[in-house]
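I'm curious: can you give me some protein's one-letter sequence along with its backbone structure tokens because I've never seen that pairing?
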Amino acid sequence: MSPDFDNVDRVEITNTNGSLSESFNNFVFEAPEVSDVPLSSSPTLTFTQNSADITGNNIAMDGEGGSQSISDIDIQVFNISDEDGTFLNSLVWRDNSFIFSSDPTYSGLTYDNNNDGTKGMSIKSEDGSEFRLIQFTYYNWGESEPFTNTIKGFRNGTEVASMTFNGFDPGFNPMTITLDPSFSNVDDVRLFISGPGWAGDGTTNHTINNIQLTAPVSADPPTVSTDPSSFISATSVVLGGQVSDDGGEPVSARGIVWSTTDGFDPTTGHTEYMGQDTGTFNGTVGLLPFGTDIYFRAWAENSEGISYGDQRSFQTANSITAQLTGHEGWRLLSVPAGVSLAEFLAPIWTQGVGSGGNTPNGFPNVYTWNTASTDDTQSWWVPVTDLTHTTLDAGQGVLVYVFNDDNYNQTPDGFPKNLPISGSEFPGPVNASPLNSNENGLALSGNPFGSPVFWDDVATSGLHDAIYIWSPGETGGDMAYSRRWNR
């Protein structure tokens, strides 16, 4: 017959005189052809017969067993022997006379081998193409008590989705399992029992059918915006942003990245982490350079990549205060900005100084170290006699005897002493002041920044293993180091 008879439910044959013929034999009937449909039409694969193309390779594909054929993807359904999705070479379609559910019309794909069970089943694209799994009908014909099934979604071999459900229905009815949006971009979905099952070996009697799929939801990096700065101080600020869209995948991390360079590459900036998920976020960012322009951007990340909000900027306050606690004695200090020692030490008493100090009389109480030294004797200390025109290099230390009396009026002024510093912090990274190249020589270095420095972040290539640290408030008259630290 012509293709016009491909999709009919009744055929009548009449004689030439118009009467209905009752004499015909040897007709061959074939199943009607089902047109392919695209994945985007959200087809449902309903398997209605145990065809040879299923039992031949123990894989049910779309278009086989009476199911809908999909034009732009090949979907496979098969049993698995473990959570890794290892193919189990047995699959069969059974109707309700075997499955024996409360729904006489239910049928499905299962495993039939002397009532043995399997670990689970897989719904997978043949060539790794992605799809979204919407739902399927599940029935277990072996369990008699509640148990947990796990469903996991994978993309390119990486787990991207997971959920669980109770696989037992006390009324022995098939159940429709609807998957959450995390299964929107997968190429393999595995269903498996999470416990021992009735057999005690981690297997059970799964049956699935009516598998509805659709085109994958296109995923992108998150959408994130940068909020203005707030609560600005000399060395800290509150920064944040908003993740308005997760891009179709969960937001695994978010935060702020900052730099002192306008238009900076965010992959090279200072990264701060501030949680995960969508919504508004913020946090305090510390250890900032004072008196400095700071440029920052919010960022957010999902499995598709990292996105950044627009760049914003602010300037930290240009004044900090170094506080000296304890009691009268020698202190090792450094200045985190290019200001003169006269300005830096103005609040405390300085003597033995020709310019910028309180008096030229008395023993000098401000010293630097001669980097040409060949040992650690006190003869290498150099008194500073002109504070007005002496500005320390970034990372250079200075030794100061801090008197209790700030104005030499014989009345102790007590501690703490506050040394305000105004200006802009030395930009990092900083190379310490010239070091001593002599084998047994020392160099005096100090923190060039307004915030603490972690010693492990200091590059010390070529240095001797012994590091000497000054104790605040040291009263020894020989101005020697007080502690030794072997790195």
User: Anything to note?
Assistant: Residues 354 and 360 are 5 Å apart (CA to CA). The chain has three helices and 29 strands. Residues 476-487 have pLDDT under 50 and may be disordered. Residues 320-454+461-487 form one domain.
